[in-house]
Amino acid sequence: MEDNRQGERSSRVRALSDSIALLRRTLPAVLPRLRRFARTLTHDVQDADDLAQNAIERALLRAAQWRAPAADATAEQIEAAVRSWMFGIVKNAWIDNRRAHRRESAVLGGDAGLTEVADTAHSRVQDQLSIVAAMQRLPEDQCLAVSLVLVEGLSYQEAADVMEVPIGTLTSRLSRAREALAMLLGGDGAP
Amino acid sequence: MNTSPSWDDAQIHAYVDGELDPGAARRLEADSRADVALAARIARQRRLAAVLRGAFDAVLDEPVPQRLNDALTAPPTDTMVTPIGAAPEQRRARPRWSPREWSAMAATLVLGLLVGALAFHTHKLPVQLVQGRMLAGDALARALSTQLSGATPADATRVGLSFRAADGAWCRSFSLSGSSGLACRRQGRWVVQLLEASRQQTTVNAGDYRQAASSVSPAMVAAIGALGGSDALTAEQEQQQLRAGWD
């Protein structure tokens, strides 16, 4: 009985170190897309790479929480699993970071809201906004939906999993984001 | 079931995103052939997705910064999580954006902007999207693979100059009616790095592009700079690559 428990524990330890090794092996292949995802959320190159770095560090710290795919998974399936997990970590890191910034600017007495309004008013003067600027004006949830589905090409199910929302919520956010982007880009003329 | 179903936006979005069930997708395709307005709604959604991917795709070709690779191999400790943008002195320690990165970013922005402008104003693009990357369309790819710089064939696709990027990829500038740009050969495909609406009928002659820079758009100069381009290939070197297939 005791032996059995001992065996279980050591196999669990082995499984964990295997899954961390698998994670480390797979991450390099996922990095370019992780950077692209971060860039769609945070348009400053340094900030986006900070976000990616933060996500890698969080991922390695929490590797124990990662559920490695079954032993017979293909390389592609493993990569997809790592990608989804990493996207979720990037999303959380990004949201945490934005909250911290909002708190910080509230403490410092800055009014982010005012700046945003002024920006939007200014943008209306321009005929067409760059897609990068338009993305920045989307609410967090909509920006995430656009990044995951339209840029990263995730399925609705995968994107909903990353965002931790039901599919219906994802599709309605995506729909609102599309309307907003079309308006901001000035490309929504009648057919 | 309606005999002439009117399609709502959610269905069109699902179709464009590849999430509509195959039966409904076939009906939507059939309906769109007879319904110009419906076809336009679909096209608009496709263009939006193309513009988005065009704006962010270039990130995939950027070299991954060393600090990210370092983070991958670092032993995990509880104290290493870097706060984003929170420690200015920590950031200063890292190299700030080099001119190369600036120009790469500028090129990306311009790409997004110009693809946007092109996509919303023309129906035909010389490019195609494959798995989220912007690749040269068939005709453009043929021209890039087979044409000598400076030649003007009947279909008016001109190849301006050829050079080798710092990462070893062969790159060629091109111009065709309404647009011009830059494509690099990667994994057997011509990946479009820059696409912009032509301002006028400018021709980029083979030769030193630095000297020719005045006739080339700033975006093109920035894009070539970002790629760390070699000197332009001579006609002889080009001939050799035409034979070798640019791979």
Task: Describe the secondary-structure layout.
The complex is a heterodimer of chains A (191) and B (247).
Chain A: H1 2-41, H2 45-61, H3 75-107, H4 112-125, H5 131-136, H6 140-151, H7 156-163, H8 167-185
Helix pairs in contact in A: 1-2, 1-3, 2-3, 3-7, 6-7, 6-8, 7-8
Chain B: H1 9-16, H2 22-34, H3 36-56, H4 66-73, H5 88-93, H6 99-121, E1 127-130, E2 133-136, H7 138-146, E3 158-164, E4 170-176, E5 179-186, E6 189-197, H8 218-226, H9 235-244
Antiparallel strand pairs in B: 1-2, 3-4, 4-5, 5-6
Helix pairs in contact in B: 1-3, 2-3, 3-6, 6-8
Describe the structure.
Chain A has helices at residues 2-41, 45-61, 75-107, 112-125, 131-136, 140-151, 156-163, 167-185. By secondary structure, chain A is mainly alpha-helical. Chain B is of the alpha+beta class. Chain B contains 9 helices and 6 strands. In chain B, the strands form 2 sheets. Chain B has a 4-stranded antiparallel sheet with strand order 3-4-5-6, with helices on both faces. Classes of the chains: A mainly alpha (191), B alpha+beta (247). At the A-B interface, helix 1, helix 2, helix 3, helix 5 and helix 6 of A face helix 1, helix 3, helix 4 and helix 6 of B.
**Beta-strand fraction estimate of chain B:** 15-25%
> How many β-strand stretches of chain A?
0
Shape of chain A: elongated
What structural class should be given to the helix and strand makeup of chain B? Answer: alpha+beta
Q: Identify low-pLDDT runs of chain B.
A: 77-97, 119-123, 200-215
**Most extensive protein-chain contact, per-chain counts:** A-B, 53 and 58 residues
Walk across the major sheet of chain B and give the strand order: 3-4-5-6
Instruction: Report the span from N to C terminus of chain A.
Output: 73 Å
Quaternary class: heterodimer
